[in-house]
Design goal:
The protein has 380 residues and is α/β, with parallel strands linked by helices. Helix content is 30%, strand content 15%. The chain contains twelve helices and twelve strands. The chain has helices spanning 46-50, 107-111, 119-127, 150-153, 155-165, 183-191, 206-212, 219-231, 252-262, 278-289, 294-304, 323-339, and strands spanning 55-59, 65-67, 77-79, 82-83, 112-116, 137-139, 170-174, 195-200, 236-243, 266-271, 365-369, 372-376. The strands form three sheets. It has a seven-stranded mixed β-sheet with strand order 2-3-6-7-8-9-10. Strands 1-5-4 form a three-stranded mixed β-sheet. Helix 6 (183-191) links the parallel strand 7 and strand 8. Helix 3 (119-127) runs parallel beside helix 5 (155-165) and helix 5 (155-165) runs parallel beside helix 6 (183-191).
């Protein structure tokens, strides 16, 4: 199947898996073999494939900070404590990254999670380097830093402890109410002007949310998280992303109004983008949950991307182009201005390194053995 334009391919019937966003395990682009499941009635047990348990694997990462130079993104450095995301958002642009692991961007992405258990130690080592220059770190960009396994793993919290110790500026992006757990760490940093949060609110419709982002917090719960964070003195931006034609775009104004009422101080948006394997996954999902409007949705998506199902060019991939992109932009900007939410997420790009102090303790490198994580001496 072409990742550029798959409109001539009729999506195959799929099963709806409870609590999962993807409806199949599409092959990653690096896969040598291509396999396709066929239900011919022989030895078929729907229960055996309708429930897939989540597997969280400990990983010793080699590095922890990612840098980008994209003009579409308002930050230069990001940190992701996990690879893969149990929230299962079918539209997630990060799904193709699981292909680098030899896994599927489909169900594997949301059921096989890799936890970077040495994230905090790596961060300490990075911040201790003589040439390190502090600037805002965006936490939870590719995969949600507060997905369900964080409740036990607490890797994100360990990272925040390091950043707090060093007075290092950061921003958190999430669609989980678990962020409330760390208010005791975030609020003091926000008081210094060094921390803020962005809550993604895709829809206010709980039924759509359950299909679109099955293991993320319900829309009402995210609104309550915005209110709780705001009352704790933490600036909160609402991310209306992605806007999906004929699925979530009718709600733009209502989402912004609800977020402003909950205490959000700024807002931004992106339109749906379907890089690589996300295209096939989303179309499967669309034909499964919204078959009557699937063709209309895809036609409008092509209108937003110059006739293609995805355009990766800078300046176009996040907001689209053409008359429908202009209409969405006008609706969003006028509503945001009316509600006082029209300040861009400038905190991501605003750097206050004057309070930064290097970590006092720098851990040794670690390796993962059968006995767990152990220290490793430096060669020099």
């Amino acid at each position: 199947m072409s990742h550029e334009n798959s409109s001539d391919v009729t999506p195959q019937p799929v099963l709806v898996l409870k609590g999962r966003g993807a409806t199949s395990n599409v092959q990653g682009r690096f896969a040598v073999e291509t396999r396709e499941r066929t239900f011919d009635g022989w030895n078929f047990n729907e229960d055996s494939i309708s429930r897939i348990e989540t597997e969280v694997v400990s990983e010793i990462a080699k590095s922890i900070l990612s840098r980008n130079s994209s003009p579409d993104i308002p930050f230069n450095i990001s940190l992701n404590p996990y690879r893969g995301c149990e929230h299962g958002c079918v539209y997630c642009f990060a799904r193709p990254t699981h292909s680098y692991l030899g896994l599927s961007p489909g169900l594997d992405f949301e059921t096989r999670i890799y936890a970077k258990v040495n994230a905090a130690d790596l961060l300490r080592r990075e911040l201790a380097k003589p040439g390190y220059v502090p600037e805002n770190i965006a936490i939870g960009v590719n995969t949600d830093a507060y997905q369900p396994c964080e409740r036990e793993r607490r890797i994100t919290r360990q990272v925040l402890e390091v950043l707090g110790e060093c007075n290092h500026p950061y921003g958190l992006i999430t669609k989980s109410a678990l962020i409330e757990r760390d208010i005791d760490l975030i609020s003091p940093m926000a008081e210094k002007g060094l921390a803020f949060a962005a809550i993604t609110l895709t829809t206010l419709d709980s039924e759509i949310a359950r299909k679109l982002e099955p293991r993320a917090a319900a829309p009402a719960r995210r609104l309550r998280a915005i209110r709780t964070l705001s009352e704790a003195g933490i600036p909160v931006s609402v991310s209306v992303a992605p806007i999906i034609p004929f699925i979530t775009d009718p709600e733009i104004e209502r989402i912004l109004e609800a977020a402003q009422d909950a205490g959000a101080v700024s807002a931004h948006y992106t339109v749906l983008r379907m890089p690589l394997e996300v295209n096939a996954l989303f179309q499967q999902w669309l034909h499964t949950h919204f078959p009557a409007r699937a063709q209309r949705v895809m036609n409008r998506i092509r209108d937003l991307h110059g006739g293609k199902e995805y355009d990766s060019d800078f300046g176009k991939r996040m907001k689209g182009e053409g008359i429908w992109a202009d209409l969405i932009r006008q609706r969003f900007t006028k509503t945001a201005k009316r509600l006082g939410l029209d300040g861009r997420m400038s905190r991501f790009s605003t750097t206050d390194g004057s309070k930064f102090r290097r970590p006092l303790v720098v851990p040794k490198k670690v390796v993962l053995s059968s006995a767990g994580a152990i220290g490793q001496m430096d060669l020099f």
